[in-house]
Amino acid sequence: MSNTPNxxxxxxxxxVKTIVTAAERLGYSENDYLIFTHPKRELKVSFPVRMDxxxxxxxxxxxxxxxxxxxxxxxxxxxxxxxxxxxVKSLAAWMTFKCALIGVPYGGGKGGVTVxxxxxxxxxxxxxxxxxxxxxxxxxxxxxxxxxxDINTSAKIMGWFVDEYSSLKGxxxxxxVTGKPIALGGSLGRVEATGRGxxxxxxxxxxxxxxxxxxxxxxxxxxxxxxxxAAKLLYEMGAKILAVSDSSGGVxxxxxxxxxELVDFVHGQKNQLKDYKAKNVKPIKNAxxxxxxxxxxxxxxxxNQINAQNANDIKAKIIIxxxxxxxxxxxxxxxxxxxxxxxxxILANAGGVTVSYFEWVQNLQNFYWTEEEVNEKLDRxxxxxxxxxxxxxxxxxxxxxxxxxxxALEVLVNTKRWxxxxx
Length: 423
What we know:
Order of helices and strands: HHEEEHEHEHHEHEEHEHEEHEHHHH
Oligomer: single chain
Distance between the termini: 39 Å
Strand content: 15-25%
Largest sheet: 7 strands, mixed
């Protein structure tokens, strides 16, 4: 059924359907998987923040804790005007399955504040962050729930987060969040981890198709932390990046974009992507970018970007889901019928949570690794998970998303069985 204006798409419905389908393929009864179709806890808070002009504004924040079957809840905090309860609930569930699939001992959590951070000064943003910490701090902790950066949040914001939490607890708690500045216990390689994970997923997919990264044509939607890192690393490996976009617009070049120059223009000089000018570079709309002919498409922006309305127009041979939930379930079926390989988000963008886990371990041990060690461990874990999913997909003759959820659900159900349940 396609989306209609009267009934907005609810990504959580897609997750539940995917879980049920995976459970049926595994031969599980409803008793085995029912708990994983419901978040364990949903917290909504309202908190006041004093603006620079002296006015008080009240903001809404969320923290959803989906499952702690495998360990503490884990997931990012996003600041975005469209943060809503169903979105956060979906993101928390994706984290549960992502952690189970990649092999880190975390459950799924997610949080956010409904705000446009571009409308706040830095001091207002800091006060908002500290008040949000105060609103949720009793529900989080280094062995309970460990937040991290997400859309429109950063290492600096995580620094404020850990400082406020530590002040409330009365002692230094670096392990309460990941994605912190290096000086506060952050891990080397964490900033690049999600984008690097996407590149590993792309590289391994191309290997299975007996193709090289060098010369591969790539299109990237989203030029934030994930998208620009993925584009930069693929460019360094010899791929031709045909187009990139962000919330301001997009640019394309048939001969391939100069990604280092583009990264410096946007992230170094703090310009908008739409204002970039160079020889043979043309503007492109996000909608047109998604349907460009290319070898690899990396949607690394927001959810529901590939949907029933545009799925038939997708021309990429491979899709690497850098964002969470960029493809709706209806669209996924269309892409599978067209023979397009989709590496799902719970595998493709698992690099971030994997290196977050490494950061947490380093914080708890107070012993830190080199960037080379971090990247080597990330590559090994991503390759292992990818190999397992590809093998299952081939054996069962199903798409990679179905195989990924089957593998993750198997881990979750087996763990739950070992723990037992009391009534």
